[in-house]
Design goal:
Strand 5 and strand 6 form a beta hairpin. It contains no helices and ten strands. It is mainly β. The protein has one domain: 10 Kd Chaperonin, Protein Cpn10, Chain O. The strands form three sheets. The chain has a six-stranded antiparallel β-sheet, with no helix packed on it.
Length: about 90
């Protein structure tokens, strides 16, 4: 398991798929900056040394800033490790 540190968030990109009947079509075009939160770090300390927890939680579907974070592959899955401040919105 991957456990982010400080104010980092582990995301798994949402695949760019469209289902037509029982056929799943995937697009090679840019999938967009939408991902699911897989794990969150404990938070970051403020100026007084108090831990400020993250507002995101596991399972949130989010839109994140383009060209931010670090992409990597682990056990055949593609992930993105990003700071919470680079997440722009939660999709409800």
């Amino acid at each position: 398991m991957i456990k982010p540190l400080q104010d980092n968030v582990l995301l798994e990109k949402v695949p760019n798929e469209k289902k037509v009947g029982s056929i799943v079509l995937t697009s090679e075009k840019k999938a967009g900056n939408v991902a699911t939160v897989i794990e969150v770090g404990p938070g970051k300390k403020d100026k007084e040394g108090k831990l400020v927890p993250l507002t995101l939680k596991v399972g949130d579907k989010v839109v994140y800033r383009e060209y931010s974070g670090t992409e990597f592959e682990h056990e055949g899955r593609k992930f993105l490790l990003i700071r919470e401040e680079d997440v722009l919105a939660v999709i409800e």
